[in-house]
Amino acid sequence: MPAKALSAAEQAKLDVTIRAAEQACRAEISVYIGDVAGDPREFATSLHNTLVLPARSVLVMVDPARRLVEIVTGGHVRERLTDEESRQAVAAMTERFAAGDLAGGLDRGIQLLGELARD
Question: What is the pLDDT of residues 74-86, one digit of tens each?
């Protein structure tokens, strides 16, 4: 995650949120904030495929400049997290992003993903 996207304090808080969500849903959660090249879904999927255990992973990709958010889930996670639930998490994030709160949006969206994908 690019350092310029979040302050050190925001990054530390997000790391705590990610760990708690991972414990709740028993999946790895990764966040990418930065420029997206080409088709956003293809870009997010290619990032997700580079993760150590893609089947047990969730990738949240955000391109603030293009106002894009994508969530990619692995097969194991998809058994517990529906597309509609992923859309709920995106809606929670984008509501805060629209208010200029990138860190708060990510924090709330990841909390929600952890709750909804609970194993």
Answer: 999 999 999 999 9
